[in-house]
Structure formats: C-alpha cells, structure tokens
Amino acid sequence: MLTLYDHPRSGNCYKVRLFLALIGQDYQSCFVDVLARKNQTEAFERISAFQQVPALVDGGLSIWDSHAILLHLAHQYAPQWLAPPPRLGAMHAWISVSANEIANSLQPLRLTHVVGNAEAAHHLGVSESLLDVPGMERRTARVLGRMDKRLAQTRWLAGGDVPTVADIACYGYAALAEEAAIDITAYPALAAWRQRIQQLPGYVPPGS
C-alpha cells in the first residue's frame, strides 16, 4: 500500500492526490500539519529530505517532491501518462514550468492570500519585508499568459490527443488560481483546459 504524506490545502499535494485518483491507485493518506511545524522532525526528514510535503512511501522507497512523485507513479503504475518520444521533451519542459515558473509566481501568490504574508514569508524562507507580492502578480500574469497561448494551439501541454503528467503538474496550482485572486476568464484557453481535466474519469476537486 502506498502512503502519501499530505496536507489538504497544498497544491503540490493536490496534484499527487489527483493523479492517484485518475490512475485508480489506492493509497493511505498521512496528514502532516505543516502550519504547526510537524514536518520539521528528524523522523520526517528520513522520508522527505527537505521536510516538505508531499512525500510518498512505496514499499521500501521514499520519494519527495511532487514532480518526482508524479513521474514515479507514471513509470510504475500508469505509463500511458508519459508522452511518447516525439513529445517527451515537451512533457518535461512543462513539468519544469510547474517546478520553476509556477512555483515562483502563482504558488507563493496564492499562499499570501491563503495564510497571510507573515506565514507565507516563513514558508518561503524570507523576511516579510522582502516578500515581493507585486512581483509575484507580474510573474503570475506572465506564466498564465504563456500557458494560455500554448493551450490555444493544442489541447494538452505536451501536445497530442491525451494528457500527460505535465498537465497534472501544472494543473495543481492552476486549479487554485481563484484563491490567488486571479480572474481565470482572462485566460480562455487555460480555462477550457481546466474544464477538460475536470471531465477526466476519476477526477477529484481540490480539497478532496
């Protein structure tokens, strides 16, 4: 049985829960209260090197980082979610967008709205005075604009007729855009892509 170390409000945890639901893979969830710093223990560090959620235990293997977990699950249980060689590079490029551009824009911007600037600064490892919310807003508009442009050209981020793990990686926080005070109607192709994901068999919404 897989064990997912999880927090219900985390977008990174949500993308893993969503993927597990889409591939029909059973797991048990272990709640980690990161707001109460319950992740900052030596025991949890043995599971997750940076004491972050999500983390997955699969047999004797511990995997941390949401994108590493998604790729592990796809390789191990759902290879149909991996792009074939002609589109493999595009899949990895959009996973990188999730790990970099989204993680440095929409993800922290949403955090400031959900937990406030002081708690967001703590999780981001900066002082509150250095929290650049206007910069987050500009970067968020840029990355959502680029995603919208891509999705106006193709149904799925890596191209092709079916989604890949890249779509789930980027969807995790795109699904929560309204919690960052984003008007998703400004990005019609991205909004349509979100609806396509919501129509996939096994889909579960954020918070579930």
Please give a structural write-up:
This protein has about 210 residues and is α+β, with helices and mostly antiparallel strands. It has two domains: about 1-80, Glutaredoxin, CATH 3.40.30; about 80-200, Glutathione S-transferase Yfyf (Class Pi), Chain A, domain 2, CATH 1.20.1050. It is built from nine helices and four strands, in the order βαβαββααααααα. It has helices spanning about 10-20, 40-45, 65-75, 85-100, 105-115, 115-125, 135-150, 165-175, 190-200; strands at about 1-5, 25-30, 55-60, 60-65. A four-stranded mixed sheet has the order 2-1-3-4, covered by helices on one side. Helix 1 packs parallel to helix 3 (about 65-75), helix 5 (about 105-115) crosses helix 6 (about 115-125) and helix 7 packs across helix 9.
The helix content is 40-55%
Mean pLDDT: 94
Which residue ranges are poorly predicted, with pLDDT under 50 across at least 5 consecutive positions? none
Instruction: Assign the structural class, choosing from mainly alpha, mainly beta, alpha/beta, alpha+beta, or little secondary structure.
Output: alpha+beta
CATH fold topology of the largest domain:
Glutathione S-transferase Yfyf (Class Pi), Chain A, domain 2
The tally of beta strands, per DSSP, is 4
Number of helices: 9
The radius of gyration computed from the alpha-carbon positions, rounded to a whole number of angstroms, is: 17 Å
Order of helices and strands: EHEHEEHHHHHHH
Ends distance: 20 Å
CATH architecture of the largest domain: Up-down Bundle
Number of domains: 2
Largest sheet: 4 strands, mixed
Give the DSSP E fraction (strand runs of 2 or more residues): 5-15%
Strand order of the largest sheet: 2-1-3-4
C-alpha geometry: globular
CATH C-level category of the largest domain: Mainly Alpha
